[in-house]
Model the fold of this input.
Amino acid sequence: MKYLILIFSILLFSCTNKIQKNFENKTEPKIQSQNITENLTLQQKIDELKNSMLEYMKTGQPLYSRSDVEKCAGILEKYVAEISKTKSKNEAMNIAKSTVLELNDLNNNAKSELIETVEREQIADIIITATYKKGYNSMDEDITEEWREW
Done:
């Protein structure tokens, strides 16, 4: 009887390990199939935004210029650099606020055509991700909303 219990225990343990390994293998592709843009660096996201805006200029007739696009990218690059040096959430939120206000002005000068729905999402993602990486907020917390006009 002791041998039967021992054999049963070994079989149960073996099956449990196989089930666990199969479960881990089945969940792995889900992790790998995450949205590719989530894995982009902040600079890559800024470059993607800039390229998208410039590409639209070729087919559309926007009221913004290449200079406006360059300014937008520059504002975001400056923001990312400044956030990386912050020591507190309060300091970071002040930088976020001034960045959003600067983007508001830039967009207003472009007759509100520079930052539309797609660009708004991309810009907010860049701003939120930079502070998230510093541990100041969660990814689902839109820290731009309070000051954003775009």
Notes: The chain is about 70% helix and 0% strand.
